[in-house]
Amino acid sequence: MIKSIILFISLTCSTAAYAQPLYKNSKAATSERVNDLLGRMTVEEKVGQLSTLLGWEMYDKQPKKVTTSAAFRKAVDERHIGMLWATLRADPWTQKTLTTGLNPALAAEATNALQKYVVEKTRLGIPLLLAEECPHGHMAIGTTVFPTSIGQSSTWNPALIQRMATAIAAEARVQGAHIGYGPVLDLAREPRWSRVEETYGEDPVLNSQMGIAMVKGFQGDNLKSGVNVISTLKHFTAYGVPEGGHNGGSISTGHRELHQSFLPPFQAAVKAGALSVMTAYNSIDGVPCSSNEFLLSDLLRKQWGFNGFTVSDLGSISGLVSSHKVAATPADAAALAINAGLDADLSGYGYDKALLDALKAGQVKEEVLNEAVSRVLRLKFEMGLFENPYVDAKKAAKLVRNTNHVQLARQVAQESVVLLKNEEVLPLSKNLKSIAVIGPNADNMYNQLGDYTAPQSESNIVTVLKGIQNKVGANTKVNYVKGCAIRDTTAANIVEAVAAARNAEVAVVVLGGSSARDFKTEYQSTGAATVTAAAGAEAISDMESGEGYDRATLDLLGKQLELLQAVVKTGTPVVVVLIKGRPLNLNWMAAHVPAILDAWYPGQEGGNAIADVLFGDYNPAGRLPISVPKHVGQLPVYYNAKRPAPHDYVETDAKPLYSFGHGLSYSKFDYSQLEVSTAEEQGSIQVKVQVTVKNNGSRDGDEVVQLYLRDNVSSTVTPAKQLKKFQRVHLKAGEQKTVELELNAEDLMLLDTKMQWVVEPGKFTIMVGASSEDIRLTTEFDVQNAIQLSAAGQ
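== Beta-glucosidase ==
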């Protein structure tokens, strides 16, 4: 009898174990789970897994709870969707406000409701992957807003940016997100382009280090941690140099330049472990990036070993029909994209029915579809979503925008501030009796936050005016006058601003630009603004930067220069603070204003950070990640252009106003004892560089030591100087340190005439200094033997 009972129990357990699908067994290998699930899916379910729909339409906010929307249930039931994008996004494009959008706790409830539906109400219970915009903070209500990427790179501090990325990832993940869009790794060599603020500037080495930092911060060491997200690299590739500055426009680059300048940041980030890559809108040599088999398959996967999934930019698959005209029908476009190696569709209409049609017509083999779906499913398994697709709303409410993250936002903003000029005006005394704070960006919280920013409560943002007020005592009178708007010329109070400046001991004039979206602006289906040339006397928004806002000139818009000139004319000492997203024409102020700070878009703590610098509580050490031209006629004007050196124009010289790497301090740093030693072995080389840096000032401060390299004679044309290594060093007053930097074969290599990566024998020049133009020490070393590395993709 007992044996019969034992046998019955054994058979029952075996049957139960057998009844559970392998893909639901958490102890099984991921590859086995993927294959098992794929084998159970219909073609329609597979295609649905590749669709990433706009997520903010997928929930309904009710007085006491958040539920799934009818649109979501229909998309799941009829289209079997597997991913959503920007579910928690709030801005004028999505029409989500502080009232209609979701706070962190409600956001967690919303994503839980979405997951509960797909897990419990679908045949296979496959959880969703939820992607969110995360370039300088999670673009959702209640999160921490950090400086935009151009400010992040101005810190020249990858370790700090990795800490920032870790914080952003945690805030997104605890609300239910799994993918963070970012970093943007496009080289910005065209400042008229509207998205410069989203980049790390003009240099591939600096971009690479910032990209690595973001990937490591986002993804961490364990995707099941509950505080990490998958990093999506943008935009693959060469998106940041459009002809004429037109966003998404055609680009012109040679194959060698593509490999030497535009691809290295992506390769470095893939090597660091990035698990997702987004294609760019542009074409390269006539082939759109979203259907470019060389980029998506040959290079990314076969050569670089990329093991994640690729995703289109919003609408770029359908753009093969509508924009590039390389496909006649949506089905043709879907076939071109997926056959080239583009796995997922950000839009929901690039694949979907079009891909099903292409499959039925034999344009796409099911094996190709299976490969794309398996890449998406693998990450769902590796994030542990089949075991735990839900998040804790109480944890979200507690972690998002916590005190430590706010303090970190202030630190990133402090380290990003670039002191462009200072004629003994800064730092200011806290004992001043009167300060005039003037300008359109002095007390406008949205203007200092940049694009891809959610609506904010006023209490969360510290403007420059508030920062200055926080810094000085009750005996200092702070008089604020806006003076004018960024663009609108229909109203101004310059006379009042002049009066305020005359009655002050110093005038802080806060100028620049804005990426602040408003509810009156029209938006394209991609989210970029629809921009038309201003006409008539109708009031216009401040927005002159941000996606879609390309410029023909780089001049200060509106009456800003007129305002500044009137204030300077009073004779009161003037400090200009720039808040903006791209390099602007600073010629007049550089000639007539004694002190200039560039803060880019400094985020929610920008006002405190700027005040810290103005009053000397923080010694500035930010460095420019992009050159500031004197005139648009100089463009492009990036520092590492290939030889020969540009010659002067009739109207002006060829040099930028402020060069890449430029930035001043309240301290003086001296360089000495540059020493170089080389060690060659077959197939490798090590070049060790040492330099002594001393703080000869009276204040503690940071110096950014920059090492540039020149290949004196090379078989193909190379730059006269190229940044290779850098290090931000803290030195107390009077302290000196020996900074050690090391070069290897990859730092010395070039693409030769046969498109081979090689290190060629000969002399190299090392230049060490404080910027690309402020070189303090120079020496040479010899490479004795050629080193063959690998071939570039043909």
